[in-house]
Amino acid sequence: MLFKDAFKTATRSLTHGKMRSALTMLGIVIGIASVIILMSIGQSAQDLILGQVQSIGSNLIIITPGAPSNGKFSPPASAQGIVITSLQERDVSALEREPSVSAAAPLVSGQAEAIYANNNKTVSYQGVTANMFSVRNLQAGKGMVFTKKDVDSAGHVAVIGPDLAETLFGPALNPINKTIRLKNVSFRVVGVLSKGGTGAFGVDQGNVVVIPITVAQKQLLGISYLNIIMVQANPNYDINFVKSRITFALRQNHGITDPNKDDFNIQTQADILSILGNITSILTLFLAAIASISLVVGGIGIMNIMLVAVTERTREIGLRKAVGATDGDILQQFLIESILLTFVGGVMGVAVGAIVVGLIYFILSTFFSIGWVFAFPISSVVLGLLVSGIAGIVFGIYPARKAGKKNPIDALRYE
Amino acid sequence: MIEIKNLNKEYTEEESSTRALRGVTFSIEKGEFVSVMGPSGSGKSTLLHILSFLDRPTGGSYRFQGKSIDDMTDKELARVRNSDMGFVFQSFNLLSRLTVYENVEIPLLYSDIPSTEHRIRIEEAVQSVGLPEKLHTETGRLSGGQKQRVAIARALVTNPNVIFADEPTGNLDSESGLQVMEILKTLNDRGRTIVLVTHETATAGFAKRIIKIRDGMMESDTVAVSNHTNHDNLK
Q1: Residue of A3, A11, A13, A323 to mutate, testing the B interface (most B Cβ within 10 Å of its Cβ)
Q2: Nearest to A158 by CA among A169, B195, A364
């Protein structure tokens, strides 16, 4: 039997039971749509997270104390409650002497209650030098950021995040030149960061208090070491070269000869991107795996209906065999029917998925003003169609074989 | 054309077995019109199934057009059924939601006949059973007699050498039954071999030769006297 004729025969019998065909397809439609939707959500989340990391700048290098974890992601040693004092002020000076480094900005951080009048909120504060604002591309929406002079003179000045300003001062009061307290130390607010500032390592920039590093080290933390050094690479140099220069400088400073005994960890934006990329890819795959369960259920639905169809059409099978159809011809016909069902279901699932993904994007960006990324990965479409086609074969082969093997006499006698 | 020798058919179901055919021997030449008669349970349907390649015998030999059934694979049997045999069943076995055209087309779909020839062959076959105006009607809407004529058209469309008819008038009123038998007779007059199974004497009377079966064995094999008398009986 020619494929063209088999195809025509299959479409004929499918269109005869339109309602049943539609209901059978529904399982596949839902399965494929959920694969598409979840993969797209995963992709969007990935784009969102990676986009935030990217916005910290591709020439930013982050140095944290503690031994490198060889590419595996691990939180900074400080977050594990281990105090590592290996990064010092003199490391910053050494890095600033490197021609491949544009700027090196140290950072210390801690948590404290920020108090103004009767309002308070527990915040994370960051002690930084004045050049941190340019390295991190942070700007004051109101007032201004503090200067090198404020840092050198250990001035009690603070730049606060916009959300914190709202919490402490409300919408009416102007925070500029008001005095807030952190751990009983008073700070004059000189600026409020503009909204949308990006947090590094998940720090909520809206609720941050940024103060001179000198004050933070001596009066709030009582330490002389650094938590992080952020380095802006000179854009004229390759980032990996800069990284190797930094490694060299720090080893020299720390007197390290064995490269396996580094007491610092250097990460570029690319390193962080690749780690986060791995995590989010796994997340996306995980979501797709969950969605594919519904696909399997849909496929079993198809198998069920096809088995019923084989029984119902026993006489038709008998007749076709009597007039010369071989086992293979019958198998082909039923297999085409199930593949058609799943494939058309797959196409519809892709369409439904696209609509839902569009709706999610519309709702999140319109009503929740989340910077959600519209992502509709082509790979999910290809995967969806491929999987639906394969489901048609896998779940269709058993009923089709059963149909092909029917004995024509018994089939013709079947009532 | 058809040569059977000592044909046996035994059905085994769990422990009991039934012998439907016990050593039947005869041959049918090209152009014959043979009626196989017998009461129900006599084995005549089993015989027809074997003759028409729908079933295999458990003993004895069967040569169709000089070739032994034992030497043929199931696929080859399907091929011969398609190109050399036509089937007419008691219960028509039409696909009721397909049109007359589509039903008659079915054997062509499984044949080597090029698709460019399909239309003309189908139209000719439907014409020859006198239903050209119903070509695109769904067969579910036809009367019993019309259905059986469509079934004959379907049997004719591949231009087979022999037509097997299993109680073709069984589900029809005598008027329609007569029409159907007339068509078969005409086909025989044009040289086609017809093998008919029936228990109605009147229907059998259209044949030139009557083989009677009882309890799986051949009872008699006689040449029919005259077609006219039987024709009148049917009326």
Answers
A1: A323
A2: A169
Residue B46: phi and psi, rounded to 5, are -60, -45
pLDDT at res. A69:
63
Q: Which residues, 6 or more positions from B77, have their beta carbon under 8 angstroms from its beta carbon?
A: B53, B69
* Beta-carbon-side half-sphere exposure of residue A285 (alpha carbons within 13 Å): 6
- Does some domain include residue B3? no
Q: Which residue has the tokens 């002079």?
A: A149
Are B195 and B211 spatial neighbours (Cβ–Cβ below 8 Å)?
Answer: no
d(CA B88, CA B163): 8
Provide the shortest C-alpha distance from residue A323 to chain B (in Å): 5
**Which CATH number fits the domain that encloses residue B215?**
3.40.50.300
The rounded Cα B231 to chain-centroid distance in angstroms is: 20
What is the torsional sign of CA B51, B53, B55, B58? positive
Residues 6+ apart with CB under 8 A from B92: B139, B144, B147, B148, B150, B151, B171
The answer to whether residue B11 is domain-embedded is no
Q: What pLDDT, in 10s, does the model give residues A42-68? A: 888 888 887 777 766 678 888 888 877
Residues spanned by the domain of B229: 29-58+79-234
pTM over 0.90: no
Taking CB atoms and an 8 Å cutoff, what residues of chain A touch B110? 1, 320, 323-326, 329
